[in-house]
Design brief:
Length: 412
């Protein structure tokens, strides 16, 4: 599917987004609102701002308290399976959790059919949600258009667990299939997804609100390195910590600090690694933070570090939005040759890439940026231009809204 951003591009698109009868869209997710999935929140807001009538269909309310006021406002448009009276009656103990695991899918199927029947477009984030929507819509004589967006785990670890043919029913029933990178559209097509219904839709960032300010570290200041993301294996935090430890051998007199923003199942493991390496006074685990605090820390950073890798269970990245944000802000990035990341970062032009798991190469890249500020600035300017051209959230959402409006059938 040709087009500036390789997004589905109908031959005839409406001149404006507002219609006499707004297109009704149901966005299907697992948990909402998740701090680690702000791209879902941003997309919903963009759809609403374009005049579409949006509802959120989710399994569960996110357990983690979120400070994003916009996300909390969207709760009024949301419905949750775990709000069902039968689910709420179950006790909060091991027996209750087992009963909940059995009851949720049964209730979900019945509720999905009701919640999705009266919309024009169903937009599912992650392949398994596309599957559940296809099942719920199957009995309808005139079902809404079914769009599914794939991100990463749903085409990696999920397939390892379920098998390569798990999406066959979705490919037969779905109307449009989007993936966050060419890497994943190629994978979809290899699995049997119709190429004429497959397209890339990058996740993007709002370049208008992200002020470009390349770092300008002065003599005597420590090198500030930062990472943002869930503490899971695919983010490569163990490699990041090992790389920074290796700087001692490459440049023993380099003073540095490393801030890690986020939480997750590897919290204790990574803290133990830092302690074993004697880096407790240099590595700061800050946990999840509100966006304003994140931006404040990014403004102080000299390098953004994210050496992503394939996890032991097969889980992989799409294209991390955190990398896009750093590049838009002017922070030189060090990442890895993994999944769709090379579609965002061109090595030696808009950032520096290392092979997966190569802590020594990551350390070398960090040292180069520390010793050569002109390299960092050159990479930063090229990175900002690339993000503006290919990963601007506003343009990407305008493309999506046009396509959704042009392919929906409000009369159904």
């Amino acid at each position: 599917m040709p087009g500036r951003h390789e997004v589905f591009s109908p031959k005839s698109q409406p001149a404006g987004f507002a219609q006499t009868v707004p297109v009704r869209v149901a966005v299907v997710v697992d948990e909402f609102p998740l701090l680690s999935e702000t791209f879902v929140i941003d997309q919903i807001v963009a759809l609403l701002q374009s005049g579409l009538d949006v509802r959120i269909v989710a399994d569960r309310r996110a357990r983690q308290r979120i400070t994003n006021e916009i996300a909390n406002d969207l709760l009024d448009r949301s419905s949750f399976i775990d709000d069902h009276p039968l689910v709420r009656l179950l006790p909060r103990n091991p027996i209750g959790r087992k009963l909940r695991a059995l009851l949720m899918p049964l209730l979900g199927h019945r509720m999905d059919r009701k919640r999705l029947a009266d919309v024009d477009v169903v937009l599912c984030h992650f392949g398994p949600n596309g599957l559940r929507a296809a099942k719920a819509l199957a009995p309808l004589k005139h079902p809404p258009k079914l769009w599914t967006m794939f991100h990463g785990y749903d085409l990696s670890s999920y397939l390892r667990d379920k098998g390569d043919d798990v999406y066959a029913p979705l490919f037969a029933a779905g109307d449009h299939f989007l993936a966050v990178s060419r890497h994943w559209t190629d994978r979809l097509n290899a699995l049997g997804c119709p190429p004429d219904r497959t397209a890339v839709l990058h996740m993007g960032v709002d370049t208008k609100t992200l002020r470009f300010t390349p770092p300008a570290r002065t003599a005597g200041q420590p090198l500030r390195v930062i990472s943002i993301g869930r503490l899971v294996e695919k983010k490569g935090y163990a490699v990041s910590i090992a790389a920074l430890a290796a700087l001692g051998a490459q440049a023993g007199n380099l003073d540095w600090r490393y801030d890690i923003i986020g939480d997750g199942p590897l919290d204790a493991t990574l803290k133990a690694q830092v302690a074993d390496l004697g880096l407790g006074d240099r590595v700061n685990f800050l946990g999840p933070l509100p966006p304003s605090r994140v931006l404040s820390l990014l403004a102080q950073a000299d390098i953004f570090l994210l050496p992503s890798m394939v996890a032991a269970n097969g889980d992989m990245e799409g294209i991390p939005v955190a990398l896009m944000e750093a590049m838009a802000l002017g922070i030189p990035v060090v990442s890895s040759i993994h999944s769709g990341i090379p579609e965002l970062i061109e090595h030696e032009y808009s950032g520096l890439l290392a092979p997966e798991g190569d802590a020594q190469m990551v350390a070398t890249h960090i040292l180069r940026l520390a010793m050569d500020p002109y390299l960092g600035k050159a990479l930063a300017f090229a990175a900002r231009a690339h993000v503006e051209d290919e990963f601007d959230h506003g343009q990407l959402m305008r493309d999506l809204v046009r396509s959704v409006c042009a392919t929906s059938s409000p009369a159904h």
